[in-house]
Amino acid sequence: MTNTRMGLVALAVAGLGWAWLVGAAGSRGQQAAGQGQAGAGAEQEQILTKGKGIFVEKCAKCHNERGDKELSSGKPLSERGLGTDAIAKAVNGRLSKGTEEERRAVTLYIASLMKGGGK
Ligand code: HEC
Fold first, then answer.
1. What is the C-alpha to C-alpha distance for residues 117 and 30, in angstroms, rounded to an integer?
2. What is this structure's pTM?
3. Of 7, 17, 48, 63, which alpha carbon lies 20 to 30 A from 92's?
4. Ligand 1: distance of its center to the CA of 10 in Å?
5. For the chain, first and last CA: distance in Å?
6. What integer pLDDT is reported at residue 19 of this predicted model?
7. Ligand 1: does its nearest atom lie under 6 Å from the Cβ of 91?
8. Residue with the nearest Cα to atom 28 of ligand 1?
9. 87 CA closest ligand 1 atom index
10. What number of CA atoms fall less than 13 Å from residue 81's CA on the CB side?
């Protein structure tokens, strides 16, 4: 009984995590969709620009602006093929003092740097 319960809770949490991430792009995208394709692109661009600003300020000394700097433990960030959830986890740790919106923006920006996969 308890195990089933835990499973359900875990599922719900995983679902919420996705909603949190997709919510950023999704709801704004839908809003902008009413304004046509250009609107959606501009919204997305704004989030990415914000994420980039934070990344350049706080993360680029170790990762470079494009996440292509070799890391002590191996491949550069942009060659790790990380999914959005893995990125979000790392970003939440690194930017624990930032706002949710900032973390979301940085997560999306890093996702946009990934070579192959992602965007
Ligand atoms: C002092 C240097 C340094 C700074 C500053 C830094 N990182 Fe990193 N980062 C690293 C190193 C080294 C690794 C590789 C660690 C590893 O392989 O576990 C890494 C790995 C990562 C990863 C990949 C984790 C994985 O699962 O492979 C992400 C995502 C990341 N950093 C995001 C950020 C973000 C976002 C910031 C800024 C808020 C940031 N880092 C700032 C050094 C840094």
1. 23
2. 0.74
3. 7
4. 27
5. 41
6. 55
7. yes
8. 90
9. 29
10. 2
Task: Kindly list the domain boundaries of the chain, sorted by start residue.
Answer: 2-113
Q: How far is the CA of 103 from the centre of ligand 1 (A)?
A: 14
Q: Which of 38, 20, 18, 19 is nearest to 29 (CA)?
A: 38
Among 2.60.120, 1.25.10, 3.40.30, 1.10.760, what is the CATH number of 2-113? 1.10.760
Ligand 1 centroid from CA 24, angstroms? 22
Query: Token match 């995208």: residue?
Result: 29
* Ligand 1 atom nearest 71 alpha carbon: 12
Question: What separation in Å is there between the alpha carbon of 3 and the centre of ligand 1?
Answer: 35
pLDDT, one tens digit per residue, over 71-106 is 999 999 999 999 999 999 999 999 999 999 999 999
CA proximity to 64, closest of 110, 19, 117: 110
